[in-house]
C-alpha cells in the first residue's frame, strides 16, 4: 500500500464560518497506480491534492490521517512536512506555467532548489539531463529563463523538476488544462512514462476532464461537494458507473467520434450545494433524478463489487 | 450571409513595428443563416483574430468581409452601429465582460439607451423577459444582482440574452464554453443549438474538437493562420484528409477509445498515408511550394462539401514528430 488516506477533513476558514471543502475522504492508492480524480470545480479535488502536501493559510486541518509507505504524513504540521516535500511527496501545481522563478535561469533555479534540500546539483545533473532528453527538451533550456519557453515546454520542465528526486507520490493538479490538444497528449503520455520508469511510485491526476483521465489512469475517483461519490477501475467508471452523478457527468460529455445529427445531450440541472452549510444526507439529492426518501440519510461509501466503491443508496 | 474573401491579417510586432506577424493568411469561408461554423485551431492559429475581424475589433489587412454583399471594413459611425445591431459577440471570460462595480443587468440598460431609446418601459420589460426566457434564465434570479453573485454559466447566458435583444443574425461565440463546468457547459451548447434552429448564424470559435463536433454544421480547421481543412462537420470528422487534422483527432482524449486505438484507425504510423496530398492530386505542382498561379485556390474540393489544403504546405517534419 503506497498511500492511505483515512477520513481526511480540511476546511477553509472564512469570516462567515468554515467551508467544508473536504469532508471525510477515505481511499487507498497502490504502488504504481495512477489515480484520476474528477469532478466539477468546487468539489474539493484540488483541496485534496493540496492537503496532501501543503495546507495554505486559509486551510484548516480538522481530522484524519495520511500514511505514505507505512509512515504517517504530518499533514497538520507544516514544519514537519518539510522533510517529505519534494523527496517523498511532490506536486505539479495547477499553474505550472508560472511556477518557475522568472528572474533565475532554469538551471540556477534547480541548483538552488536542490541545495535547499541538501542535495548537490552536480551530482544530480547527469540524471536531470537524461530526463530532459526523455521528455524531448534540449539541454540548452537549463541556460534559459522561463519566459523563453513555450507553455508545453514549461509544463514538461516543471514535470521533470517535480519528479527529480523520485518521490513516492506525485500530485498532478490540472496539468494539461491550459495546453493545446497535441501538447496535452504529449504531457499526459510523459506522466505515464514517468510511472513506467519508476520515477514516481504512484500518482494522483486531478482534472475536470474525465476523458483525459480515461486515457492515462488505472482507477478513477469521482468527487462531489467535498465527498467521494464513486471509485473504481477506469473501465468500470466509464462503461458501468453506478452513481447517478457519474452517469450524468459522462452522458453530458460531447465526443469526437460520435455523430450528433439532431440528438441533444443533457446537462445536470442545478448547481452543487454551497459548502458553508452543506445539506444533510446525500449532497447530490437536489439534482439527482433518482432521489427518494432514503436520501435524507447520508449514504456510506461502500464497496458494491470488488474494487468498486459507491456512495449511493440506489447502488447498493 | 457573411462572407470572408481571402482575408489576411498582418500584425506589426517588435520595436517600432519593425517585424511582421501573419496571423491570418488568405482565409475564405461563409456563414449562412441557421448554420453553425466552428473555427477550430490551437493557440496562435488565428481563430480569435478572425472572430475579432468579423466583429470589427481588428482591422483587415487584405481581402474583405461582406455581410449580404456590403463590405463591412469601411462602415463607420451610424453604419457601424447598424452593423452591431445584426452582429454581436460573446467572449471567453464572462467575469471580465461585466463591470464588477455595476449590477450585471446594466448591460441590458446600455442596449436600451443605445438602440431603443424611445421604447416604452413596459414594452422593454416584456422584450427583456422574452430574451431571458430564450436563454432559460429566470428574471427574478438574475436581475438586480452584481456579477459576483451570479455563476459563470448565468453570466454567459445573460450576455447571449443581451445579444438577442438586438435583431442579431450572426453571433460570434469566442470560446464561450471553456470557462464553464462540465455539467453546465452542455446547457449553453444546447442553447446555441436552439438559436441555430431559429435561423441565427453562429461563428463558433473553439479549441475543443468535441464541442465543435457536437454543435457545428461546418468545420474550419486552422493552423498558423491558414485553413488546412474545411467542410461539413460529419465529413471532416469521419474522414480527415490533412495530416494536421489527423494529428489533432489522434490527440483528442476520447471517452471510449484509447489514443492507441484511434492512432491505429487513422493510420498515424504510416507516413506515406498520412502525408498523402489530396491537393496536388488535383492541382499539378510540387508539395510545399506556393502555387504558380496566385489566383489558384489554396483548398481543393476533395469530395462535395469537403475542402483540403496541400498536405505539406506550412507543415514541417518537427510538427508531426511532437504530435
Please characterize this protein's 3D structure.
The complex is a heterodimer of chains A (316) and B (323). Chain A is an alpha/beta fold. Chain A contains nine helices and twelve strands. In chain A, the strands form two sheets. Chain A has an eight-stranded mixed beta sheet with strand order 6-7-8-3-9-10-12-11, sandwiched between helices. In chain A, a hairpin with a 2-residue loop joins strand 11 (302-305) and strand 12 (308-310). In chain A, helix 5 runs parallel beside helix 6 (181-196). The longest helix of chain A is centred in the middle third of the chain and has 16 residues, at 181-196. Chain A is globular, with a radius of gyration of 20 Å. The relative contact order of chain A is 0.15. In chain B, strand 4 and strand 5 form a beta hairpin. Chain B is of the alpha/beta class. The radius of gyration of chain B is 21 Å and the shape is globular. Chain B has helices at residues 47-54, 77-86, 94-97, 106-115, 121-134, 139-142, 152-165, 182-197, 209-215, 233-238, 243-251, 259-265, 271-274, 278-282, 317-322; strands at residues 2-13, 19-31, 36-40, 62-67, 70-71, 87-90, 170-174, 201-206, 218-223, 226-232, 300-303, 306-308. In chain B, the strands form two sheets. An eight-stranded mixed beta sheet of chain B has the order 6-7-8-3-9-10-12-11, with helices on both faces. Chain B has a four-stranded antiparallel beta sheet with strand order 2-1-4-5, with helices on one face. Chain B has 15 helices and twelve strands. The chains are: A alpha/beta (316), B alpha/beta (323). Chains A and B meet through helix 6, helix 7 and helix 9 of A and helix 8, helix 9, helix 10 and helix 11 of B.
Amino acid at each position: 500500500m503506497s498511500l492511505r488516506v483515512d477520513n481526511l477533513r480540511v476546511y477553509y476558514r472564512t469570516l462567515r464560518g468554515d467551508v467544508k471543502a473536504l469532508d471525510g475522504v477515505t481511499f487507498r492508492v497502490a504502488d504504481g497506480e495512477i489515480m484520476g480524480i474528477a469532478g466539477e470545480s468546487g468539489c474539493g479535488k484540488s483541496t485534496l491534492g493540496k492537503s496532501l502536501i501543503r495546507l495554505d493559510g486559509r486551510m484548516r486541518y480538522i481530522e484524519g490521517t495520511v500514511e505514505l509507505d507505512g509512515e504517517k504524513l504530518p499533514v497538520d504540521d507544516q514544519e514537519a512536512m518539510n522533510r517529505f516535500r519534494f523527496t517523498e511527496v511532490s506536486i505539479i501545481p495547477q499553474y505550472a506555467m508560472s511556477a518557475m522563478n522568472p528572474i533565475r535561469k532554469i538551471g540556477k533555479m534547480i541548483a538552488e532548489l536542490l541545495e535547499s534540500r541538501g542535495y548537490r546539483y552536480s551530482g544530480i545533473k547527469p540524471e536531470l539531463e537524461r530526463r530532459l532528453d526523455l521528455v524531448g527538451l534540449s539541454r540548452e533550456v537549463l541556460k534559459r529563463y522561463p519566459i523563453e519557453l513555450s507553455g508545453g515546454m514549461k509544463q514538461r520542465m516543471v514535470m521533470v523538476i517535480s519528479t527529480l528526486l523520485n518521490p513516492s507520490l506525485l500530485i498532478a493538479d490540472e496539468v494539461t488544462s491550459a495546453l493545446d490538444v497535441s501538447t496535452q497528449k504529449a504531457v499526459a503520455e510523459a506522466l505515464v512514462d514517468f510511472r513506467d520508469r519508476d520515477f514516481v511510485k504512484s500518482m494522483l491526476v486531478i482534472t475536470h476532464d474525465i476523458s483525459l483521465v480515461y486515457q492515462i489512469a488505472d482507477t478513477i475517483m469521482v468527487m462531489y461537494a467535498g465527498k467521494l461519490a464513486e471509485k473504481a477501475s477506469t473501465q468500470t467508471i466509464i462503461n458501468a458507473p453506478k452513481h447517478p452523478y457519474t452517469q450524468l457527468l459522462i452522458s453530458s460529455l460531447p465526443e469526437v467520434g460520435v455523430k450528433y445529427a439532431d440528438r441533444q445531450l443533457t446537462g445536470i440541472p442545478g448547481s452543487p450545494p454551497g459548502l458553508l452549510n452543506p445539506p444533510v444526507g446525500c449532497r447530490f439529492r437536489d439534482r439527482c433524478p433518482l432521489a427518494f426518501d432514503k436520501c435524507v440519510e447520508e449514504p456510506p461509501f461502500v464497496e458494491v463489487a470488488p474494487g468498486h466503491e459507491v456512495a449511493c443508496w440506489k447502488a447498493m | 450571409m457573411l462572407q470572408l474573401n481571402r482575408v489576411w491579417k498582418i500584425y506589426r510586432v517588435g520595436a517600432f513595428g519593425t517585424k511582421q506577424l501573419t496571423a491570418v493568411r488568405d482565409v475564405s469561408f461563409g456563414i449562412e443563416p441557421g448554420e453553425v461554423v466552428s473555427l477550430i485551431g490551437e493557440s496562435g492559429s488565428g481563430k480569435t483574430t478572425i472572430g475579432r475581424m468579423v466583429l470589427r475589433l481588428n482591422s483587415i489587412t487584405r481581402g474583405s468581409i461582406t455581410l449580404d454583399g456590403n463590405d463591412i471594413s469601411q462602415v463607420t459611425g451610424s453604419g457601424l452601429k447598424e452593423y452591431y445591431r445584426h452582429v454581436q459577440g460573446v467572449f471567453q471570460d464572462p467575469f471580465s465582460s461585466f463591470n464588477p462595480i455595476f449590477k450585471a443587468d446594466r448591460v441590458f440598460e446600455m442596449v436600451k439607451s443605445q438602440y431603443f431609446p424611445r421604447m416604452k418601459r413596459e414594452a422593454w420589460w416584456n422584450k427583456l423577459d422574452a430574451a431571458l426566457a430564450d436563454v432559460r434564465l429566470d428574471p427574478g434570479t438574475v436581475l438586480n444582482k452584481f456579477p459576483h453573485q451570479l455563476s459563470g454559466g448565468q453570466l454567459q447566458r445573460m450576455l447571449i440574452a443581451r445579444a438577442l435583444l438586438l435583431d442579431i443574425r450572426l453571433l460570434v461565440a469566442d470560446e464561450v464554453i471553456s470557462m464553464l463546468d462540465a455539467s453546465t457547459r452542455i446547457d449553453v451548447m444546447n442553447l446555441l443549438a436552439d438559436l441555430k434552429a431559429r435561423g441565427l448564424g453562429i461563428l463558433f470559435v473553439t479549441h475543443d474538437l468535441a464541442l465543435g463536433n457536437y454543435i457545428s454544421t461546418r468545420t474550419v480547421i486552422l493552423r498558423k493562420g491558414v485553413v488546412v481543412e474545411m467542410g461539413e462537420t460529419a465529413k471532416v470528422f469521419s474522414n480527415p484528409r490533412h495530416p494536421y487534422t489527423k494529428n489533432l483527432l489522434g490527440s483528442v482524449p476520447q471517452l471510449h477509445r484509447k489514443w492507441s486505438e484511434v492512432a491505429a484507425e487513422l493510420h498515424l504510423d504510416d507516413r506515406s498515408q498520412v502525408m498523402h496530398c489530396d491537393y496536388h492530386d488535383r492541382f499539378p505542382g510540387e508539395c510545399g511550394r506556393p502555387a504558380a498561379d496566385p489566383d489558384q485556390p489554396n483548398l481543393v474540393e476533395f469530395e462535395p462539401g469537403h475542402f483540403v489544403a496541400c498536405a505539406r504546405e506550412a507543415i514541417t517534419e518537427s510538427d508531426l514528430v511532437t504530435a
